[in-house]
Design a protein that fits this description.
The protein is 11% helix and 49% strand. The protein is mainly β.
Length: 363
Amino acid sequence: MSLPQDVITEILSRTPATSLLRFKCVCKSWHKIINDPAFILKHHQTISRLPESEVVMISRRSNATNRRVFSLLRNPADVVDLDLPTLLNDMFGHVRLIGPCNGVVCLYGYYDNIELWNPTIRCFKKIPSSELQRPPNSKIRGGDLGLGFDPTTQDIKVLQILYCVSMDSQIAYQVEIYSSRKNCWKKLETYVPANIMCYNLWSMVYKNQKYCWWAQDKNNVEVILSFNMVDEVFETTELPSDVEPLGGQHRTTRAIVPLKEWLVLIVYRQREDEKVFDMWILKEVGGGGGGGEAWSKLMSMGPIRGVEKVLGLWNTYECMFESGTGEMVLYNRVTQETKNLGIYGKRSKLEVVVMTESLFSMD
């Protein structure tokens, strides 16, 4: 007895992406279903809602070779190093890991050196360098990236913000956006309302359609700067009004990290041996924030000893840290237990992104 195609499609939409890659060989009809762009989107949306569907991609600098090593963590006992057939590791001392968006991450070596990567289907795409004219009589001193998905056009987009310095030391931004569907860049005549802090140290994709950075506006007020991939505009959201000020005696700092479809702000003191991490959830990105009332306090974690830096949140209850020795550490917010994972890299060079594996290509 054969099942109706809509039933088969529904069953396949709940099947892990790695299994679907093998199922393409079952029959021609399954191959057609699994390759259909509408199914690929439905599959990712369905899988993302399932509990324990998230995996962690880890980027770290090897102590032995000084090269970037990328690994996938499916559970604390299952770490697999990934093959990275890219020239970026040879060309640049530091390759940024940005994303994810629909199971796709972005590798960023330096301006105009960008690759898209879906590790599940082992697909790389070197983004062509922008041929847009840059500001005359100026030099590019760096840049930042954003990544997101435009559901109206089914398009993965990459935003590049270039920092251009003129001969008289004036700083100007040039904003360019790349379309994976069109495989080309265009210049955006738009105003960037805030200065990104720490060169993408804390940035994230929000609900696939927006990319967010920790930033300061023109009045030096801390904000979340976001870019909407559909409308192609920037927005800002103020931080909560009662968080501890940045810096000071204890070197208070922040992290912005994703938790499912929420944005979470984590505030902590770097110079304390036993750190307390205050967590805030943002109800909606954009619209200014009006003094920070869009935020609600979630909880405080700790005190926790032996951790130096927040890396991210995983599977609702796990918080990931880097220790003082460059080791990755898990902390369960419910049991308050810590677990050293034995994953080491050079200090302050650990990066993670929490993602759901997908079948998305970049074409």
